[in-house]
Amino acid sequence: MQEQIYTNYCLLLPDTEQIGTLVIRDGIIADIQPGIVSQGQNGEGNYLLPGLVELHTDNLEKCLSPRPGVRWNLEAAAINHDRDLISSGITTVCDALAIGDVTPKEDSLRLHHYAPMIDVIAEGKAAGRFSTDHWLHLRCELGYEHLYNIIEPYSEHPLLTLISLMDHTPGQRQFVNVDKYKQYYIGKHGVPEAKMDEFISMRLESQRKHAQENRQALVKMTQEKAISLSSHDDATVDHVQQAIAEGVILAEFPTTIDAAKEAHSNNLMVLMGAPNIVLGGSHSGNVSAMELVELDLVDIISSDYVPRSLLQSAFIISQQANKPLYKVIQLITINSAKAINLDNEIGSLEVGKKADFITVHNDGIVPRILEVYKQGKRLA
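Given the sequence above, the corresponding structure tokens read:
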């Protein structure tokens, strides 16, 4: 057996943190001991914690289209995306790919490039091309006319782990404030300001025609195929109650305290964004993630659109909310793994689990990742 020893690290264990020693054999955690031993890699008191588990990142889209109108080589974009993740300490990811666009662009990634993006993830994983372990999260824009016909053929895809129900129609959910909606779509998606009112009318009509039918069909499909289902941007108690009736297990980015409370009290896992934590608030003007954390209403943190924000958010929460770091780390490791049924293999430092872990130095400014290991092999 190949044995690796890591000693004099501050281990973030499921129920405590302690200076100790981790023993790895053939890519599996074989032993965890308190104290320091005389052999192995000396961590000099730096943190050692589980590899991060990410459920919702659209970073692949950013790598494929780094600027409006620019299309990067797909294989190179996938590799760059993977390196962004592993260097951020993310050892397992659900790549969140949106299906059905909310913009009128003719060359939309979400209308015309979703199939190649899914294929490049599957092919890269099968070929051993990636460092991070990749799975699929399909984000379904309910107002898109052809949504269900696109999603249904992927229902048996071996990497499909999560489906989320999205509705970015202006005047509700994420964009109750229509001015914020205009600012976002003009800035990010390049919708001309002069065409915004026409664009909003189009979005409202698409929702009226297609959203309910698509939602019902997707809920039925996920129940039949036993695919984990999440809601998105719930703003009201009624939104959450609808999600509960549909079998949702995860509430992504609730926009109000009332929605988060309703979800949490009904045993839905509540996911919030790390950028919201790092920036001190929501860019859409919705509820502060830190406020929900302080109320103990958050179960999972996602990096969303900034992979490196995931680890930083945990250290910010620990400091600002005065919560033990080993507990906060659960928001970006074991809780995420539970949501996609991988918690028996990853997500915590426990004997018998895969040796997916990272080492971190914290100087009180920004935590710095020193090393990233996947099944005992150093990858970053």
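The chain has one domain: 51-177+203-342. Try to locate this feature in the token string yourself.
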